[in-house]
Amino acid sequence: MDITSEFFQTEIKLKDKKKSKPKQSRSESDSKLCCVICGAEITSNQQQLEIEGSHTHSKKNPANQLFFIRCFMPVENCTVNGEKTSLNSWFSGYQWQFAHCKNCSTQLGWYFTGASSFYGLIEDQLVICNN
């Protein structure tokens, strides 16, 4: 399967959320963030960064799926998969690859490389860690 087909057919395991997420409080600004499926620690709110003037972005893929992503660097417990491509990149001058949880293989978002490198992680795939 080529990267274009993979992009269109990516299935994301999203946790069923019946309630909207509460706004982040100041006390959560340094919280560690974990995979929503297995609880593996991925990053923290202290690692967030701005890309193109914002930490958060809403982006649609070619299949018209809407993603709310947050930008981070560094992250841990992520594997980067697939060949780098600039096809349908959401960020000008950047190539992307898939980013999956190292523990359970859930797609957490994408890894972008260009003038700098960063992870665009899907907001609903992260939760505040319980530990």
Structure description:
The protein is 5% helix and 39% strand. The protein has one domain: Metal Binding Protein, Guanine Nucleotide Exchange Factor, Chain A (Beta Complex), CATH 2.170.150. The chain has 131 residues and is mostly beta strands. The protein has a 6-stranded antiparallel beta sheet with strand order 3-4-8-7-6-5, with no helix packed on it. It contains 1 helix and 9 strands, in the order H-E-E-E-E-E-E-E-E-E. The protein is globular and about 40 Å long. The N terminus is likely disordered.
Global Rg: 14 Å
Q: What's the helical proportion of residues?
A: under 10%
Kindly report the average pLDDT value: 84
What would you call the shape?
Answer: globular
Number of discrete helical segments: 1
Strand order of the biggest β-sheet: 3-4-8-7-6-5
The helix-strand sequence is HEEEEEEEEE
Q: What is the terminal separation in angstroms?
A: 39 Å
Query: What would you give as the CATH superfamily?
Result: Peptide methionine sulfoxide reductase
Q: Largest sheet, described in full?
A: 6 strands, antiparallel
Residue stretches low in confidence (pLDDT < 50, at least 5 long) are 1-27
Overall tally of structural domains? 1
Under the CATH scheme, the architecture is: Beta Complex
